[in-house]
Automatic annotation (TrEMBL):
Binding, Zn(2+): C54, C65, C67
Role according to the record: Catalyzes the conversion of GTP to 2,5-diamino-6-ribosylamino-4(3H)-pyrimidinone 5'-phosphate (DARP), formate and pyrophosphate.
Domain of life: Bacteria
Residue ranges constituting the GTP cyclohydrolase II domain according to the UniProt record: 6-169
Lineage: Bacteria, Pseudomonadati, Pseudomonadota, Gammaproteobacteria, Cellvibrionales
Biological process (GO), any one: riboflavin biosynthetic process
Protein name: GTP cyclohydrolase-2
GO cellular component: cytosol
Length: 198
C-alpha cells in the first residue's frame, strides 16, 4: 500500500484551526486525511490519534460504538496541547466497508457479537492494514508519537512503520447502554485495554 500526498489546506473546527493534509491511495482509490495542529515535524513526540473511519459513529451520531466520542476527545486533546496529529484512515468497519458493516450489525441485532458477525460474513475479526501510514508519517516528518488508543495492535502497527510510540494514552469515552456488549467484546476478544473504563 502506498499513499501519495496531494494537497493541504486550513480546517477551522469547533476545537480550533487544524491543517488538513490529503493523501490518495492509488491501489484502493481511498482518500485519507491527516489533521495537524502546530509544528509536528520538529522531532519531538507528537500527540496522535489513528482513527478508523466509522460513518455511523463519526457522522451519524450512532450509539452502537464509541468512535464519534473518541474522535471528538482526540481533537479536543490535540487542541488543548496546541500540537498533534489525527490520522483519519478510510478503513470503515475495521476494513470490511460500510455495507458489510451493516450486514454485521444485522447479525448482531440477531445476537452475534462483533467478532462472530465478521466471521459469519467470511471476514477476519479485524481486516485493517496500517502500512498506509508510513508515507503519511514520512511526509509529515513524524518520528515519535504519544498515541491515544486502547488498541495495542495500533501501537504495534505504528512501531512496524518505524515510529517510536513513547506513550499510550487511554481513550475511554462514549460508553452507553447500546454499546456495552461491543465494548466488552473489544476487551474480551480483540485485546483492547479497557481498564479503568466506567
Ligand atoms: N466490522 C465491524 N466494524 C465495526 C463495528 N463497530 C465498529 N466498527 C468499526 O471499527 C472501527 C473502529 O475500531 P474499534 O475496534 O472501535 O477501535 P480501534 O480503532 O481498534 O481502537 P481505539 O484506538 O481504542 O479506538 C471503525 O472502522 C468502525 O467502523 C462492528 O460491529 N463490526
Ligand atoms: Zn464506530
Amino acid at each position: 500500500m502506498t499513499a501519495r500526498y496531494v494537497e493541504s489546506s486550513r480546517l477551522p473546527t469547533d476545537w480550533g484551526e487544524f491543517d488538513m493534509h490529503g493523501f490518495e491511495d492509488a491501489e484502493t482509490n481511498k482518500e485519507h486525511v491527516v489533521l495537524t495542529m502546530g509544528n509536528v515535524g520538529d522531532g519531538e513526540p507528537v500527540l496522535a490519534r489513528v482513527h478508523s473511519e466509522c460513518l455511523t459513529g463519526d457522522a451519524l451520531f450512532s450509539m452502537r460504538c464509541d468512535c464519534g466520542s473518541q474522535l471528538q476527545a482526540a481533537l479536543k486533546a490535540i487542541s488543548e496541547e496546541g500540537r498533534g496529529a489525527l490520522f483519519y484512515l478510510r478503513q470503515e468497519g475495521r476494513g470490511i466497508g460500510l455495507l458489510n458493516k451493516i450486514k454485521a450489525y444485522k447479525l448482531q441485532d440477531a445476537g452475534a457479537d462483533t467478532v462472530e458477525a465478521n466471521e459469519q460474513l467470511g471476514f477476519g475479526a479485524d481486516m485493517r492494514d496500517y502500512s498506509i501510514l508510513r508515507p503519511m508519517l514520512e511526509h509529515l516528518q513524524i518520528k515519535a508519537v504519544r498515541l491515544m488508543t486502547n488498541n495495542p495492535r495500533k501501537v504495534a502497527a505504528l512501531e512496524e512503520q518505524g515510529v517510536e510510540v513513547v506513550e499510550r494514552i487511554a481513550l475511554h469515552t462514549g460508553a452507553n447502554p447500546h454499546n456495552e456488549k461491543y465494548l466488552n467484546t473489544k476487551a474480551g476478544k480483540l485485546g483492547h485495554m479497557m481498564e479503568g473504563r466506567g
